[in-house]
Design brief:
The longest helix has 19 residues. It is globular and about 85 Å long. By secondary structure, the chain is α/β, with parallel strands linked by helices. The protein binds nicotinamide-adenine-dinucleotide (NAD). It comes from Vibrio navarrensis.
């Protein structure tokens, strides 16, 4: 067995006894780099039981002590930033610079977790009735769990377990089976930072292991990030088993280009936001809506896109890496063909892309469509590849209406020099994260990651104050301390004062 990935159960990195193994590959070569166990039921049970036991101690640890664990963890993550990014590049194919960004966005959430105390403050009102005070406190829930996708192997696990654990919970993580190695390094560093045994567990697998977590009575919350169908399934199953669920799903993010915008800024940002990370970002811009005269910029956009090319993670000239798997590449090829068959104009076709020295990688070159309408599958489906589709609109109102009709609501942006247009857009658009001359408006962790509509199932979003609410329960206490001279005898009515 090549490089078997361990489970993390009860504080021990241990080999699974399973007979079911998956291959982890390097997407630039499709060579197998590790073997991944699908955890057996007994192993899943041990992980959850150990997390439940650890909770009984961890919830009593003083809040500043829990915060200090996160400070030490943040320090270690920064110290190992480069090596984490290398591991991440190897299993995702991301360029080293992009992989470092992935780790960095996770480190920022750990910084927020180190500041947990200010988000754990309750409220108090004195004298709600004579000599009676009411105050609320925030308490952890128990065992929380996270199920993560392939495309941000550092950032997305770090959206979840540091805040949950800082709030006093324990955590079971099931990373993507395609990119488990970064999660294991994150867990090793967490242990090195002093995380007590059992506070974080890692299990591996696919649907069967996820189903186990969805049904287990000890698990109180499910945090999921991934594709739409699975997000819907997780939300339905999780809530059916009376768990609190936040499920972040797929997207189709539009950039509105107004004719008064700065053309060079538009073109540079469109190229980067659509093909960066091979388009495998939930906040990638996959649709450009060219308003009025902005449609004349298409030839320059095409020229700029044709100048960027994918390549190996350690090639400093590479704009982005390969797709995650041959299946992902085939799916993108199929959608490009459907776009052509359905009548869109394929201005740039990335299907025949080759990278010197890496003939087996899952490469797709930058792909650009014009003449697209809302009925075409390249508009309706999340492509998750380096493909940008362009639609046209006569006015800002038409562009807003188009975006609001799309079922997704993760991110959107407008490029304009007109403040009134920008303000109208931010006010009327039915999308949870809006950029104004910013193509990928991912909020920093003191805000929350607020996808809407078909891109999110649940109520409370990732990181920020909302995540602390998600990982905690509010308890309200009403208290009276009797003076000796208080009149005695039963009180049989509801007090009005
Ligand atoms: P995916 O849905 O295939 O997998 C996500 C997780 O779900 C993995 O851990 C996987 O093992 C598990 N899973 C897969 N099939 C399952 C099933 N049938 N039942 C139970 N669990 C199952 O997603 P992916 O391909 O790894 O990630 C890409 C998707 O994630 C894209 O759609 C992207 O938009 C989305 N995404 C969304 C956000 C966001 O914040 N909205 C962020 C990143 C990625």
């Amino acid at each position: 067995m090549l490089n078997p990935v361990p489970l993390l159960i009860d504080g021990e990195f241990r080999q699974s006894a399973t007979t079911e193994w998956l291959e982890v590959t390097n997407p630039a070569t499709n060579e197998v780099i590790a073997s991944l166990p699908c955890a057996r039921d007994e192993e899943m049970q041990q992980a959850v039981a150990s997390a439940a036991e650890a909770f009984q101690t961890w919830k009593h640890v003083a809040l500043p002590e829990r915060a200090r664990l996160m400070l030490r963890y943040q320090h270690l993550l920064k110290e190992h930033h480069d090596s984490l990014a290398q591991t991440l590049s190897q299993e995702t194919g991301k360029t080293l610079a992009d992989a470092k960004g992935d780790v960095w966005r996770g480190i920022e959430v750990v910084e927020q977790a180190a500041n947990i105390a200010s988000n754990m403050m309750g409220e108090m009102v004195e004298n709600v009735a004579t000599d009676i005070d009411t105050y609320s406190m925030i308490q952890p829930l128990g065992v929380c769990c996270g199920i993560t996708p392939f495309n941000f192997p550092a950032m997305i696990p770090l959206w979840m377990f540091p805040l949950a654990i800082a709030a006093g919970n324990t955590f079971v993580l099931k990373p993507s089976e395609q990119v488990p190695l970064t999660s294991m390094r994150l867990a090793e560093l967490f242990a090195q930072a002093g995380a007590p045994k059992g506070v974080l567990q890692i299990v591996h697998g696919r649907k069967a292991q996820v189903d186990f977590l969805l049904q287990h009575p000890e698990i109180k919350t499910i945090s999921f990030v991934g594709s739409v169908k699975v997000a819907q399934y997780i939300y339905q199953q999780g809530t059916q088993h009376f768990k609190r669920v936040q499920a972040f799903a797929g997207a189709k993010n539009h950039m509105v280009v107004m004719p008064d915008a700065n053309k060079d800024q538009v073109i540079n940002n469109l190229v980067g936001a659509s093909v960066g990370a091979a388009g495998q970002r939930c906040m990638a811009i996959s649709v450009a809506v060219l308003v009025g005269g902005a449609k004349a910029w298409l030839p320059e956009l095409k020229a700029a896109m044709s100048r960027v090319q994918p390549g190996a993670w350690n090639d400093s000239n590479a704009a982005y890496g390969p797709l995650i798997s041959p299946q992902a590449k085939e799916r993108v090829h199929r959608l490009i063909q459907e776009g052509i068959d359905q009548g869109a104009v394929c201005e740039l076709d990335g299907r025949h892309c080759q990278v010197a020295g890496l003939p087996n990688g899952n490469w797709v070159g930058p792909t650009l469509f014009s003449g697209v309408n809302t009925e075409m599958s390249i508009y309706r489906e999340e492509i998750f590849g380096p493909v940008l589709v362009c639609l046209e609109a006569d006015s800002l109102e038409e562009a807003i209406e188009l975006i609001n009709r799309n079922p997704y609501g993760n991110g959107t942006s407008i490029f304009t020099a007109n403040g009134a247009a920008a303000r109208k857009f931010q006010h009327e658009i039915q999308v949870g994260q809006v950029g104004i001359n910013v193509p990928i408006p991912v909020p920093l962790p003191f805000f929350s990651f607020t996808g809407w509509r078909g891109s999110f199932y649940g109520d409370l979003h990732a990181y920020g104050k909302q995540a602390v609410r998600f990982f905690t329960e509010t308890k309200t206490v009403t208290a009276r301390w009797f003076d000796d001279d208080i009149p005695s005898g039963p009180n049989l009515t509801i007090n009005l004062r």
